[in-house]
UniProtKB/TrEMBL annotation, chain A:
GO MF assignments: ABC-type transporter activity
Topology with respect to the bilayer: Multi-pass membrane protein
UniProt xrefs under InterPro entries: ABC-2_transporter_component (IPR051449), ABC2_TM (IPR013525), ABC2_TM_bact-type (IPR047817)
Protein name per the record: ABC transporter permease subunit
GO cellular component, one term: plasma membrane
Main localization category: membrane
UniProt similarity note: Belongs to the ABC-2 integral membrane protein family.
Pfam family of the protein (one): ABC2_membrane_3
PROSITE patterns: ABC_TM2 (PS51012)
Residue ranges constituting the ABC transmembrane type-2 domain according to the UniProt record: 136-366
Localization per Swiss-Prot or TrEMBL: Cell membrane
Keywords assigned by UniProt, alphabetized: Cell membrane, Membrane, Transmembrane, Transmembrane helix, Transport
Automatic annotation (TrEMBL), chain B:
Keyword Cell inner membrane: no
Domain ABC transporter: 4-236
Signal peptide bounds: none
InterPro entries: AAA+_ATPase (IPR003593), ABC_transporter-like_ATP-bd (IPR003439), ABC_transporter-like_CS (IPR017871), ABC_transporter_ATP-binding (IPR050763), P-loop_NTPase (IPR027417)
Classification via PANTHER family: ABC TRANSPORTER ATP-BINDING PROTEIN, ABC TRANSPORTER ATP-BINDING PROTEIN NATA
Record family assignment: Belongs to the ABC transporter superfamily.
Record-given protein name: ATP-binding cassette domain-containing protein
Pfam families according to UniProt: ABC_tran
Keyword Hydrolase: no
UniProt keywords, alphabetically: ATP-binding, Nodulation, Nucleotide-binding, Transport
GO MF term set: ATP binding; ATP hydrolysis activity
Length: 369, 307
C-alpha cells in the first residue's frame, strides 16, 4: 500500500510540475464549453435580413416589424429594388431577403390571398431552411391573427412540442458531446503518454527490476487521471448549468457513476495503447487519430448516426463515446433513470472489462525487444 | 559461493532481411560472491544485452543463468527483489528532485532512506547539497551518483552497473570507482561493464567481451602477464609516417597508435636495435624506442587479432 501511495504521489508530481500540460488539462473543458456555447453554434440568432417592401401599407409594415422584432432576425437594410437584393447577397450583407409585392394588403383583403417572397442564401443549406421556417412561422402567426374568428371550415392544426429542449438550444446537444470528448482525450491520451514516457526515458527498465507488481504500476498511473477527470466533469457541469443554462434533469449521482465508468473505459484504452507503443509521439498520434476523430464522428453529437450508411453505423457501435454520449443525454437532458440506460451501461462495462484484461495481459514484464 | 552463474547464453536479435545479429554467442562464466567483476568491451560487444538478461529484463534464446542462486527466467520475481540495477542510460525521474527520487525508489523496494542510510552515506553526502534540485538539472557525475544511490537503497546482494562511467569526466570516474571499492567492502557483489580498458585494472576479475564472445576471463594482472611478445613504445617526429613505416617494415606483428606513442608488438627474434636501424634507414627522425608493459588494451587488441 505504501508503495502504491508513493507511486501515486510521484505521478501527481509529474502532472503538477508540467505546468503547461496541467493548464491545458484544466483549461480545455472551459475553452471547449465556451467555444461550443458561444462561437461554434449552429443555432440561428440575429441573422441579417433585408426587406424589399413595394407596397408600404399597414399590413406589410406590421409584418416587417414583427419579423425584425424576433430574436432570430436583424433587419440591416431596406432594399429598394430587385437588383439591390442580388447585390446585397453577393456582398454577403444579408442571409435572407423578404419581398412584399405591390398592393399587399389590398390583395390580402380583396382576393383573400397575398404573396410574400422569401429569398435565402442556400450556400449554407441548414441555415437557409431554418431561416425560411422561422419566417414562415411568424407570417403564419400573423395570418391567424387577422383571420380572427373567421375559422376556415376545415383546418388541421399542427401542435408542435419540442420535448426536453423547448428552446432548441444547441447546448443541450453539445454538453454531453464535449464531456465525452474531454474524458476521452484526458484519460486515453494522457495515460498512454504517461506510461510510454517511462519507456522512453528508460525509467521503465528500473521499475521492472523492482518488486513492483505490473497491476500496481497500471493502477497507480491511472488514479491521478481519474481524479483529474472527475474535476473536469464537475467544471463542465458547473459551466453548463450556470453559464449555458442547461439544467441537469436527471440524477447527478447516476450521471457521475456513468462518467466514472466511461473514465475507466478510456483509461483502459489508454493502457492498451501504451502497451504496444514505444514513443510518446506514436502514443499521441494513435490517441488523436485513432480515438479523437472517431469520437467526434461516431459519437453522434456532430453527425447523426442514423443518417450514416449501414457499415458506418455498425462501426459506431465499437466507439465507447457513442454509448456514453447516449447515457449523458438520457440522464442529463431527458432526466431518465437507470432503467433507460442499463443496456448502454452494460455495453460500456463489458468494453472496459475486455480492454482492461487485454492491457494487463499485454503489459510486458520484460523489455519488449 | 557464486553470486552469478552464466551457462552457454545465446541471444540473437533479428536484423535486416531475416538475418540475425548474434549479441551473445555462447557465453559462460561465474562471478564469486563479494567480487568486483568487470565486463570490458567496445560498444556493441553485447555488454548491455548480458546485463539485461541477468537482471531478468530480456530472455535469452538458449542457455541458463542464475543470480544469487535464482534462475533468471523462472525466479525472476525473487531476483527483482534482491538485485540493484543501474542502466546505461540515466533512468531516474528528471522532474523529481534528488531527495524525491531516492525516496521513491526506497519505497518501491519496501524500505526507507533511513534504514539503509549507512550504505549510501558516503555517496549521498556528495549530492546532499543539491537534494532539492531536480534530477534533470544535475551534472553528469552527480546524476551517476544519484542513480547509484537509488540502485543501492534497498541493500541489494548483487549490483549491476551498465556503463556507469560512460560520459562522465575523469575526476568523477575516479571517484566513482573509489565508491565501488567501498561498496565491495560491504560484501556486495558488483558487476560493472565499461568500454574503458583502463578501468579493467580496478576490477578483481574481468571478462573481455567482443562480438558477443568472451576473449579472456581472469584477474587483470594474469591477463596482462599472458602477453608474451615484446612490446615497444615508439615515438618520432612524424607520427603518421612512422606508423606507415612500422606497418610496412615486416618486423612488427602489430602496431597501433597508443596515446603519444605507437605500440609495436614485435615479431619473435627481432631486437630493438634492428627496429631502430630500420627506422633510421627509412628516414624517421628523433626516434625514441622504449620497452613497454602490456596493459589490458594491448591484450585486448592481441586477443582480437587471434580470433
Amino acid at each position: 500500500m505504501k508503495q502504491f501511495l508513493s507511486f501515486v504521489k510521484k505521478e501527481c508530481f509529474h502532472i503538477w510540475r508540467d505546468k503547461r500540460t496541467l493548464f491545458i488539462l484544466f483549461g480545455m473543458p472551459i475553452v471547449q464549453i465556451v467555444l461550443f456555447g458561444f462561437a461554434l453554434t449552429n443555432e440561428v440568432k440575429n441573422s441579417q435580413i433585408g426587406i424589399l417592401d413595394m407596397s408600404r401599407d399597414e399590413a406589410s409594415i406590421t409584418l416587417a416589424n414583427r419579423i425584425n422584432a424576433s430574436r432570430y432576425f436583424d433587419l440591416v437594410t431596406n432594399l429598394q429594388s430587385n437588383t439591390e437584393i442580388d447585390a446585397a447577397f453577393r456582398k454577403g450583407d444579408i442571409k435572407m431577403a423578404i419581398v412584399f409585392p405591390e398592393h399587399f394588403r389590398e390583395s390580402l383583403l380583396h382576393t383573400n390571398t397575398a404573396q410574400i417572397q422569401l429569398i435565402t442564401d442556400a450556400s449554407d443549406p441548414n441555415t437557409a431552411t431554418t431561416l425560411s421556417n422561422y419566417a414562415s412561422a411568424i407570417i403564419g402567426d400573423y395570418q391567424d391573427e387577422i383571420m380572427g374568428q373567421n375559422k376556415l371550415p376545415y383546418t388541421i392544426t399542427t401542435q408542435v412540442r419540442m420535448l426536453y429542449n423547448p428552446q432548441l438550444k444547441g447546448a443541450y446537444n453539445f454538453v454531453p458531446g464535449v464531456m465525452a470528448l474531454i474524458l476521452m482525450l484526458v484519460c486515453t491520451m494522457m495515460t498512454s503518454i504517461a506510461i510510454v514516457k517511462e519507456k522512453e526515458m528508460g525509467t521503465m527498465e528500473v521499475l521492472l527490476v523492482s518488486p513492483l507488481k505490473p497491476i500496481m504500476v497500471i493502477i497507480a498511473k491511472a488514479v491521478p487521471y481519474l481524479l483529474l477527470s472527475i474535476i473536469n466533469i464537475i467544471s463542465i457541469l458547473l459551466l453548463s448549468v450556470y453559464l449555458l443554462d442547461v439544467p441537469i434533469a436527471g440524477s447527478i449521482v447516476l450521471l457521475f457513476a456513468a462518467s466514472i465508468l466511461f473514465i475507466i473505459t478510456s483509461l483502459s484504452l489508454g493502457l492498451l495503447i501504451s502497451s504496444f507503443t514505444n514513443t510518446q509521439q506514436t502514443a499521441m498520434l494513435i490517441s488523436l487519430m485513432g480515438l479523437f476523430m472517431p469520437t467526434i464522428i461516431f459519437s453522434g453529437f456532430m453527425f447523426p448516426i442514423e443518417n450514416m450508411p449501414l457499415p458506418m453505423q455498425v462501426i459506431s457501435n465499437a466507439i465507447p463515446a457513442k454509448w456514453f454520449y447516449y447515457i449523458v443525454k438520457s440522464v442529463m437532458i431527458k432526466g431518465l433513470g437507470v432503467e433507460a440506460i442499463w443496456h448502454e451501461l452494460l455495453i460500456l462495462t463489458s468494453m472496459t472489462v475486455v480492454l482492461l484484461t487485454i492491457s494487463i495481459k499485454k503489459y510486458n514484464i520484460r523489455l519488449s525487444q | 559461493m557464486e553470486a552469478v552463474i552464466v551457462n552457454n547464453l545465446i541471444k540473437t536479435y533479428p536484423a535486416e532481411k531475416k538475418s540475425v545479429v548474434k549479441a551473445l554467442n555462447d557465453i559462460s562464466f561465474k562471478v564469486n560472491a563479494g567480487e568486483l567483476f568487470g565486463v570490458i568491451g567496445p560498444d556493441g560487444a553485447g555488454k548491455s544485452t548480458l546485463f539485461r538478461i541477468l537482471t531478468t529484463l530480456l530472455l535469452a534464446d538458449s542457455g541458463t543463468a542464475f543470480v544469487d542462486g535464482f534462475d533468471v527466467v523462472k525466479d525472476y520475481k525473487e531476483i527483482r527483489k534482491r538485485v540493484g540495477y543501474m542502466p546505461g542510460k540515466f533512468s531516474l525521474y528528471q522532474d523529481l528532485s534528488v531527495e524525491e527520487n531516492l525516496d521513491f525508489f526506497a519505497t518501491i523496494f519496501n524500505t526507507s532512506i533511513r534504514e539503509n542510510y549507512d550504505l549510501i552515506k558516503d555517496i549521498y553526502v556528495q549530492i546532499a547539497p543539491f537534494k532539492t534540485r531536480r534530477a534533470g538539472k544535475l551534472s553528469g557525475g552527480m546524476k551517476q551518483k544519484l542513480a547509484l544511490c537509488c540502485a543501492l537503497i534497498h541493500r541489494p546482494s548483487v549490483l549491476f552497473l551498465d556503463e556507469p562511467t560512460t560520459g562522465v569526466d575523469a575526476v568523477s570516474r575516479k571517484e566513482f570507482w573509489e565508491m565501488l571499492q567501498q561498496l565491495k567492502k560491504q560484501g556486495i557483489t558488483i558487476l560493472v561493464s565499461t568500454p574503458y580498458m583502463d578501468e579493467a585494472s580496478l576490477c578483481d576479475r574481468v571478462a573481455l567481451l567482443q562480438n558477443g564472445a568472451i576473449l579472456s576471463i581472469d584477474k587483470p594482472t594474469v591477463i596482462t602477464a599472458q602477453f608474451n611478445n615484446t612490446l615497444l613504445a615508439v615515438k618520432a617526429d612524424n607520427m603518421f609516417g612512422l606508423l606507415q613505416v612500422l606497418r610496412e617494415s615486416g618486423l612488427a606483428a602489430n602496431s597501433y597508435p597508443f596515446g603519444e606513442y605507437h605500440h609495436v608488438v614485435m615479431k619473435d627474434n627481432i631486437s630493438i636495435e634492428e627496429l631502430g636501424n630500420y627506422l633510421n634507414q627509412k628516414g624517421c627522425t628523433t626516434v625514441n624506442i622504449q620497452k613497454a608493459n602490456a596493459n589490458i588494451e594491448d591484450c585486448f587488441i592481441a586477443l582480437m587479432r587471434n580470433e
